[in-house]
Amino acid sequence: MKAFVTGGAGFIGSTLTDRLISAGHDVVVYDNFSTGKEEFLREALASGRVTVTRGDVLDQSLLTASMRGCDTVFHIAANADVRYGLTNPRRDVDQNTLATFHVLEAMRANGIGRIVFSSTGSIYGEPDVFPTPEDAPFPVQTSLYGASKLAGEGLISAYCEGYGFRGVIFRFVSILGERYSHGHVFDFVRSLRADPTRLTVLGNGQQRKSYLYVGDCVEAMLLGLDRAGGKVNIFNLGADEYCEVTDSVGWICDRMGVRPRIEFTGGERGWIGDSPFIFLDCTRLRSLGWKPTLSIRDGVIRTVDFLQAHPWLLEARA
Amino acid sequence: MKAFVTGGAGFIGSTLTDRLISAGHDVVVYDNFSTGKEEFLREALASGRVTVTRGDVLDQSLLTASMRGCDTVFHIAANADVRYGLTNPRRDVDQNTLATFHVLEAMRANGIGRIVFSSTGSIYGEPDVFPTPEDAPFPVQTSLYGASKLAGEGLISAYCEGYGFRGVIFRFVSILGERYSHGHVFDFVRSLRADPTRLTVLGNGQQRKSYLYVGDCVEAMLLGLDRAGGKVNIFNLGADEYCEVTDSVGWICDRMGVRPRIEFTGGERGWIGDSPFIFLDCTRLRSLGWKPTLSIRDGVIRTVDFLQAHPWLLEARA
Question: In this complex, is the C-beta atom of B89 within 8 Å of any C-beta atom belonging to chain A?
Fold first, then answer.
């Protein structure tokens, strides 16, 4: 396959790029390097099977030209800063909804009909059913991030129906692991390195969340693409367990060898639009033969180790 | 109330404008007159309670300036040409998704927090449950129209959650009645006036559809706005019956006194993305006290009479 990976220099995109190369594929990475990092592509570039274009997914003509000759698009680029939707709503609309439209139009212009999309469990809003299956009751959106990703899913599905595309959509839980560069583990590790005596936790710490190790996530994407036979294929992608934020805090502190005083900001949610309980039913993907190799706890610990070994990443966003 | 009605010169928007005025409200109509008609606003303008701005919902600064001083927004402007999504996908994205984002941003800039939105039953794609309730299993989108409207719904819901807006979202079936200016009754009447001996019907004619009379639609919107107490309120809006396309053809031909030879283009769907069965469960809105006054058959007949009495409308699009 000749794969086109938007956001291919980012956390998940670069891990996917490495995996595609190791499986013998060629990759075109397309990234604006707003959060992506050249460092993450070092091994991939050494393989000689990767070309990199520095460009924005909103630049339709560059995107279309760069995609030429590819047969499969992994659309991973996104505004993944879930928490800040309300300070800049245009960013979610541009980077998650319009960007997906641009990717689809570039595919159509190039005659490419296979797309893999990183959606999110946030599109379930605050569901009533746990674990939440893909065909849960039609949810009400609670975050701009979720709404903007749902819009992307809808466009992809309509292109599959209308233009004969084949789509594989994954609704991710939060992803952890090497190259992880934003999210609660990042924030906690950075804070504890600066001051190991205290830690502020958003909400009451009892938010229940599910996480998945990035290696398991990338394997799932390739397996789903390979084995899903439908026109539009939608898969939840997460661990079959969840933890409370305080569990995660405990694992992080143990690994770092610190015993901070924990201060909770209070409330059931960490921020407006934060879902207090995310736990996805991943039976559909598991029935195709996928299963995660790391527990949430092991994923958190591996992430802590990675961040401790790469302090420049923590400083880059300080 | 001082209402701001996008698409206020159109079929549904102008009917709503008339109804708002007769209830003693003031109205600002905002319309680009791409399908809206000055003729539809004649009575409203005579009341002295309407101001009209000719502008596009994509013009953020004009939209924001025009909305000043209003307290409730009825966002009715849309690309309603469901069938042509695939010839111009950007139109659905611009006119239905981005336009809704612009309306929300204009509201935020003006401190307006009440929005009524005309969504569509098309967002259910091809559901398995009939009549289809609002919390049907999470659907897969089958048309750009549906996908672009679902994106609008998601943004509105996220603004309600994030900025304290109150939203009332109606998922319309096809609307019929006076000022109706596109859709199957329009096409059939125009065709039969040109040649009463034959009629081409898209699909096999057995598509099952639900329709609602525009007067009942407008009453429902005002009642829903008045009585729905939640932050995000989502209502199906349709008749509690459906008909086959061939039923509708029969009523139209009877009313026009013609007996054409019917030619079916064949297939279960009239076009790609056409849902072969639309029938919404409207229990939620009915439980607030709303019910339609006209049957589908009576709505179709009234529409035929209106079109026959206003042939300039048929010619305007010929």
Answer: yes
